């Protein structure tokens, strides 16, 4: 069992409230359709006031299986073009949506003063790997092709994702490297889901926090792989070569089952001479930056993360 005494006390309050309302957490809901509906309803209940500093537009990119939704957030007062960020939502490859990340993407657009393109993708189990990577990669190509119209500097575009979105950010960066483009200048995979093996110490330690625990993660990986052998795009931790990936910012919580696989991947990036900034947040659980954003820990996490993205941008400018 997880040692809950190690959770940040302030950040544990909203988590305890969630578990009171939903005993066992999201993964206790066995039917995937009911689970999705519950998550969507929870997100919809959190009203997000529209930000007058951000303009929102809806777009469609073409993917291998049809239309891919892209929602673009544009800072109203920023000088165009701005650096660009491709935002990939989380949800373990089985949950999540553009709408569920609306508060985060709107805040980041305003705080960073840059255009953000939030992309949708097909999810498992209906659409196992490589569907998600194919969709996000197609959307990434669309963003680069339309950068000028979107108000982005094509020479200053990065990818960002949390949890499953972080894994997809790395997957797309690997695919772009091997395919010779598009030229992703930086990436920010946040507590990324990258290792199907679930063999690390932290993956065995986090069993009952209630947000993303071992049993639910194993289930999600089984659905995502769909009986196929994993490769570097579905499970980036097994990539044989991580050299020549973009400069990276990554953070993860101490009480996150992805902690050790992320630490191991960062070590490999450093050994491959990839520039990396990494932060481990004591007492943080998976997505505590979302559920407990207003805590001191949540504020510190976001402040450092946004500053880290700005440092990536400044570094990319120097390297251009």
Question: What do you see in this structure?
Answer:
The chain has 320 residues and is α/β, with parallel strands linked by helices. It has a single domain, classed as Alpha/Beta hydrolase fold, catalytic domain (Rossmann fold, 3-Layer(aba) Sandwich). The chain is 41% helix and 21% strand. It contains eleven helices and eight strands. The chain has helices at 9-21, 32-45, 102-112, 131-145, 147-150, 164-179, 201-205, 214-225, 259-271, 288-291, 296-319, and strands spanning 54-63, 66-75, 82-88, 115-119, 152-162, 186-190, 248-255, 276-285. It has a six-stranded mixed β-sheet, sandwiched between helices. Strands 7-8 form a two-stranded parallel sheet. Helix 4 crosses helix 6 (164-179). It is globular. 47% of the residues are buried.
